Amino acid sequence: MNNKNQSSNSIRTVVATGIGAAVIFVLMKFVAIPTGIPNTQFNVAEGFLALLAALYGPVAGGLAVFIGHSLNDFVTYGSPWWTWVITDGLVGVALGLIKNRLNVTGGTVKTMKLVWFNLYQIVVNFVAWVLIAPTGDVLVYHEPAAKVYLQGVTSWIVNSVSVAIIGTILIVLYSRTRAQHGSLKKEK
Amino acid sequence: MNSQLLIGYTARDTFLNRLSGSTKLIGFVALSIIGMVTYDTRFLLGVLLISLILFHFSKIKYHEVAFVLQVIVAFAILNLVMVYVFAPSYGITIYGTHHMILGSPDHYFNLSWEQLFYEFNLLLKYIFAVPLALIFLMTTNPSEFAASLNKIGVSYRISYSVAIALRYIPDVQNDYRTISLAQQARGYEISRKAKLMTRAKGAVQIIMPLILSSLDRIEIISQAMELRRFGHNKKRTWYMAQPFKRNDYLALIIIVLIVLIGIALFKVNGGRFWNPFK
Amino acid sequence: MVEPIISFKDFGFQYDSQSEPTLKHINLDIFPGEKVLLAGPSGSGKSTLGRCINGLIPQSYPGEITGSATVAGHDIKDSSIFELSFSVGTVLQDPDSQFVGLSVKEDIAFSLENDERSQTEMRAATKKWAERLDLKPLLDHSPQGISGGQKQRVAMAGVLIDESNILLFDEPLASLDPASGKASIELIDHLARQQNLTVVIIEHRLEDVLQRPIDRLVVLKDGEIVGNDKPSAILKDSLMQQLGLREPLYLSALQLAGVKLADCDNIDSVETVAGDNIESALQRWTAGVSLQEPLLPTEPLLTLNNLNFSYNRNQPIIHGLNLTINRGDMLSLVGRNGTGKSTLSNLITGFLKLDGGEMKLNGQDLTQLSVKERADHIGYILQDPNQMISKAMIFDEVAAGLRLRGLTDDEVERRVNDTLKVCGLYEFRHWPISALSFGQKKRVTIAAILVLNPEMIILDEPTAGQDLRHYTEMMNFLETLNREHQVTIMLITHDMHLMLEYTQRAVVLADGGVLMDARPADVLTNEAVIEKAALAKTSLFTLAERYHLPSALDFVAKFVQTEREVRRHE
């Protein structure tokens, strides 16, 4: 790619980050889907993050969720819970790293790729929510380990399931809307 | 339509409004970091007191923030209860002594002054930054926010991403409302009545149009910005940036002093905890 | 000899993603200070030509260029969007995407911020342009707090601040109410003269743009220039319809009365058109047509009684509104932006909750029904089809509402197929929605609502952004639905042609209530109402007045009646 196109791409990353953050904020704030377990909800925002990161890469993915999540914490809890906000940003980065392998814009994503994507995201979410976030809470906030690790495991499950269901459906639907249609015929 | 965030900036004539956004941002970040790390009760109480005094001067009305405060209190209580349930003797471990109120340290569930004191510190940590955050949010013009981020060293591209987020949140919010109602009219559901998978699918169908139209928007806005020369130069200036004035320097000096006191207390206490039990 | 400022020589362009070139053999010179209107149906390549002028092609849209094109001395092949942006200012179609600042003043100064100008310079320049464009009182407003017309003025200020001498407008009338559209065209004209700008306007609504003089009309069709002359010369050929453009109404009326356009002078404006026999021809025609009293439906379907609604207590949007919609009505709901047209439809569909008042459908209290239950009776179709579509395939999208209501597969299939046939989509039923045009997508969203068998549908700007062919198809389709399938239709619109030619009843909203409820011809000949509701006088009315016809109202009504008869027999 030449220089000029790179500058367009960097602007697109800036805009994708901003609009992505706005969408994540709105989804976190207004779209609550009860899972049936008290106080636990589907994280629709994490599902959207998977698509956003797959489309625009690690920088946009990571920053968008970092900004969206902090803004949401600001207006709901008064102040961001930094360890979790940062962890969420790292998840965005990790999900963005597989942009080229997943290649959502190149037409319908095959089942094998989806399976592989889901294994990857479960591992990413495990590292993020079971290892990084609670460890951060213990180190920074000095909260008791048992409590934060339980919260971490819960988040891992909820977020993995959200990405597995919502993220996968979004990716499939999106890639289908981008599919090439060479051989369409009218039917009587 | 309601275009504001749930809590948001209003122009008030106070010295806090007149401080530059960068000063407030540095102050908020510096104080919340030092407060996050330290467990010195005296320090946390001191910062809380200062922030409450500032809150008073900011002329923010209680009813403007009442809802947020309720959420915060509920969140704090829930966490404190969870901490107790999972580690009722954690205070004893930290402070190394046991002054019992109920039960004995040998039982899993017991109540000690150490635990109460630890949880009190935790409570302080949950809430001390709240008045600061509210002041920051409600006295900083969102237009100035991106300029402030850029000024304290964040790249202007990232700073502008934040500006775009703030600019389009009200639009996305309105779109979401319209789209989700139009979809609900067709019968999509996310309520508890439906099965888990139905709910998840319903949610995707409801938000799908929002997501696709937002992605289209990314392309058009990128073009609009490129046509107006965004992103070509290494730097950019900001119409809304506020230069530092005397009060800003004064405020920064006070912030540095507070942070230094916090750090000095680590030395004095020989660690992050102030231990009144010894 | 003056050099052209924009020059295309045997120019062609093919997008990488397409198999055919979009532009072919374009030869076009535009000279400094010229005001050019670029018209053509959708798919004609007019927007692509615009992108070549501001450099988005080939920078953002890669593709293959043949021939040559220069803009302000730059060869577009090897100049960047950045370089061209100093010479060409672009005002995009969607004012919300162009407005990237958090407030009016920041948005006006946006390009200067990117040029690293000092705050003092930016303040001075912003002040200057805000004054010229009458934006001073709005400087601190957020984009959410101003109207579409005001946003467009902000966009203009934001590009004029660069002092570039070419201005490019991409469909500037698309999202404006008629009065704002007219103001916009006047402002463009004024600025062009004052600043000695070269102006290129891409638009398919000829009549609205021609309210102010245009130096040259360039018509594109299938990627080629098929007309390039003074507007009057092209209009005289009366080829507009064949070229896929809507002919100005007053010209259609003249032809109906038997006037030969070729014999007329100054035909590019209704204010100046002149000819020896116009007056007698119009008099003769209007005397020869007898008005039939149309049979309007009378059985009430939806009764709204003393409705009240406000977002905040101090500013009621709807205030004591009364309206009865009859079964079989095809009516248009018009009024200034922000007078509550959308609010009213949101109240009817239950998207918003009434503060007070009565709503009855067939005598049943509507306020007791949920959003979903109301949707079984009253369907609402949003302006942007992309905001309603959530499936990849057409059949699934239309079937969704029925499946969610628990119908059997056979029943779903039967009803979906029937609806698709009505909507002319049956042969596409297994296509992905993404392969459809904008107008077809809109039809899919209508089908997805019709399949639920509502007694009434509400459509928000059903023809926005569509060219004449798609517009006519859509409106004929809605007319058929209304006449043959007895669906009551309410259209929310800014399009005066649409209201005049396709609806039998016009409801004008203003000040929270119904200002006028009458035949469209009555509304569009009532100057007080036109003024108050930001509508636009139809050129037929001006024509009738200029040629001293006995009753302008009768003339307009007779014209509409005749057009409708012609349409029915086609």
TrEMBL record, chain A:
Pfam families cross-referenced by the UniProt entry: ECF-ribofla_trS
Chief location category: membrane
Entry GO CC: plasma membrane
Keywords: Cell membrane, Membrane, Transmembrane, Transmembrane helix
Source organism superkingdom: Bacteria
TM ranges: 12-32, 44-69, 81-102, 114-133, 153-175
Membrane topology, from the record: Multi-pass membrane protein
Location(s), subcellular: Cell membrane
HAMAP family attached to this UniProt entry: UPF0397
PANTHER family: UPF0397 PROTEIN BC_2624-RELATED, UPF0397 PROTEIN SPR0429
Family as reported in the entry's similarity comment: Belongs to the UPF0397 family.
Protein known as: UPF0397 protein GB993_07685
Natural source organism: Furfurilactobacillus milii
UniProtKB/TrEMBL annotation, chain B:
InterPro entries (alphabetical): ABC/ECF_trnsptr_transmembrane (IPR003339)
Record keywords, A-Z: Membrane, Transmembrane, Transmembrane helix
TM region positions: 25-55, 67-87, 116-137, 249-268
GO CC annotation: plasma membrane
Compartment annotation: Membrane
Primary residence: membrane
Its membrane topology: Multi-pass membrane protein
Pfam families: CbiQ (PF02361)
Name this polypeptide is given: Energy-coupling factor transporter transmembrane protein EcfT
Biological source species: Furfurilactobacillus milii
From TrEMBL, chain C:
Membrane topology: Peripheral membrane protein
ABC transporter domain residues: 6-247, 302-536
Short name of one Pfam family: ABC_tran
Protein's job: Probably part of an ABC transporter complex. Responsible for energy coupling to the transport system.
Primary localisation category: membrane
InterPro entries named among the record's database cross-references: AAA+_ATPase (IPR003593), ABC_Co_transporter (IPR022216), ABC_transporter-like_ATP-bd (IPR003439), ABC_transporter-like_CS (IPR017871), ABC_transpr_CbiO/EcfA_su (IPR015856), ECF_ABC_transporter_ATP-bd (IPR050095), P-loop_NTPase (IPR027417)
Name listed for the protein in its UniProt record: ATP-binding cassette domain-containing protein
GO cellular component terms given for this protein: ATP-binding cassette (ABC) transporter complex
Assigned keywords, A-Z: ATP-binding, Cell membrane, Membrane, Nucleotide-binding, Repeat, Translocase, Transport
Family: Belongs to the ABC transporter superfamily.
Family annotation (Gene3D superfamilies): P-loop containing nucleotide triphosphate hydrolases
NCBIfam families for the chain: PRK13648.1
Highest classification ranks of the organism: Bacteria, Bacillati, Bacillota, Bacilli, Lactobacillales
GO molecular function: ATP binding; ATP hydrolysis activity; ATPase-coupled transmembrane transporter activity
Top-rank taxon: Bacteria
Locations listed in the record: Cell membrane
